[in-house]
Amino acid sequence: MENQPVSSVGNDGELRQMENQPTPAAAPKPTADSAVVSMQRSTINMILTGLIFLVIGVIVGMIIYDRSVNNEAQIRRIVTIALEASRSDTQAMIQSALADIGGGETVARLGDDPSARYTLSPEGPALGAENAPITIVAFEDFQCGYCKRFNDDTLPLILAAYPDQVRFIHRDFPILGQASLDAAHAAQCANAQGRFWDFHAQFYGNQQMLTAENFTAYATSNEMDVAAFTTCYQAQEFQDAIIADLAEGQTLGITGTPTFFVNGRVVVGAQPFAVFASVIEQELAALGS
Question: Looking at the structure, do residues 142 and 279 belong to the same domain, yes or no?
Answer without folding.
Answer: yes
